[in-house]
Write a structure and sequence with these properties.
Number of strands: 14
CATH class of the largest domain: Alpha Beta
Distance between the termini: 21 Å
Strand content: 15-25%
Radius of gyration: 20 Å
Number of domains: 2
Structural class: alpha/beta
CATH topology of the largest domain: Rossmann fold
Shape: globular
């Protein structure tokens, strides 16, 4: 599996912004942040990110993996709209600005995204995000407009071509998610992308958002090959994986030894436009055996297991290049 690296200017910015803290300090801060997330501290009126060190620890711990998950989701959108050139991007719940760095990857829309708007509640995240943006070679990132907004309340801005919210739904009170999705769709000119952790809970949030957006006229762009109700049943869940290169500091803050990590994520992309569509999506690791390959596919008619053999040389050649998440024709 190919690994993705953070862009050089973002790596440089992270390194310099994190130099003020030792790896030991950041690792302890990461542990504290994880505890606050698990105990849902915000319900007591307190912030999870309470200091510049918290923001730095979050960036060291989560930014690379989030970058990879967002990039992988947006790459599927790009494949469905190969001629689309979005000019405006809205990131809701932006953290330190990870989405805009992913969306301007050379494989995506680095030249066309001219106006970037970021909504974020935590002042320390905004400060860090602005500092990181200062290292960018792209003017669109350096000139991005940040707004301090509590997204659990009513917020408004002008509609944007591409709207993204990543790893946010799970942090919202359940009774506020439907209104939040309504606002996201209201601000979407073309395509909305929602990304959550690749867990059963994260998939549940994505599934609910997908169902809601379907009733509002949204057309499924990715990952699904259809606009029908999701065929996943029982304890099963749809998620994907992307491999991200770890820096030395990243390994230290996560107490990991490998030079990479696999970010598992769920997502849905909904649009007001009709995408090119696919016939099926590979939803599990292809099982390569001697003389045949077993595939688990999501298709317009439901979930299908299929076996591709060497008898069909062209199909077998195609199947050998498939990965978890690939489209299949």
């Amino acid at each position: 599996m190919a690994k993705i690296e953070l862009p050089t200017d973002l790596r440089t910015g992270l390194k310099q912004q994190l130099e003020a803290f030792s790896a030991k300090e950041l690792a302890q801060c990461v542990a504290d942040l994880s505890h606050r997330y698990r105990t849902n501290l915000p319900i007591d009126g307190q912030r999870i990110v309470q200091s510049p060190k918290d923001a730095a620890a979050y960036a060291a711990f989560r930014l690379p993996a989030t970058y990879g998950g967002v990039y992988a989701a947006l790459r599927q959108v790009r494949a469905q709209f190969p001629q689309w050139q979005p000019q405006t991007l809205l990131d809701v719940g932006a953290g330190p600005g990870t989405v805009m760095w992913s969306a301007t990857h050379p494989d995506l829309w680095p030249e066309t995204l001219h106006k970037i708007t970021l909504l974020e509640r935590e002042a320390n995240m905004i400060t860090l995000g602005r500092r990181l943006a200062g290292y960018a070679s792209l003017a669109s990132i350096r000139e991005a407009r940040w707004h301090a907004v509590d997204i659990t309340e009513r917020w408004g801005t002008t509609p944007h071509d591409l709207v993204v919210t990543s790893y946010v739904l799970g942090e919202l009170p359940r009774n506020s998610r439907a209104a939040f999705i309504d606002q996201l769709w209201e601000m979407t000119k073309h395509t909305l992308v929602i990304i959550e952790p690749g867990t059963p809970i994260g998939f549940g949030h994505i599934r609910e958002a997908r169902d809601q957006l379907r009733t509002m006229g949204g057309k499924v762009v990715a990952p699904c090959p259809h606009d029908r109700p999701c065929p996943m049943e029982g304890a099963d869940w749809c998620h994907f994986r992307h491999r991200v290169t770890r820096s030395r500091l990243h390994r230290q803050t996560k107490a990991g030894e490998l030079g990479y990590e696999d970010e598992k994520f769920c997502f849905v992309a909904m649009s007001r436009a009709q995408s090119r569509g696919i016939q099926s999506r590979v939803i599990r690791h292809p099982q390569v055996r001697k003389g045949h390959i077993r595939l688990q596919l999501c298709t317009p008619t439901g979930l299908v297991g299929t076996v591709v053999t060497r008898k069909d040389r062209e199909l077998f050649r195609q199947a050998r290049n498939l990965e978890w998440g690939s489209s299949f024709h």
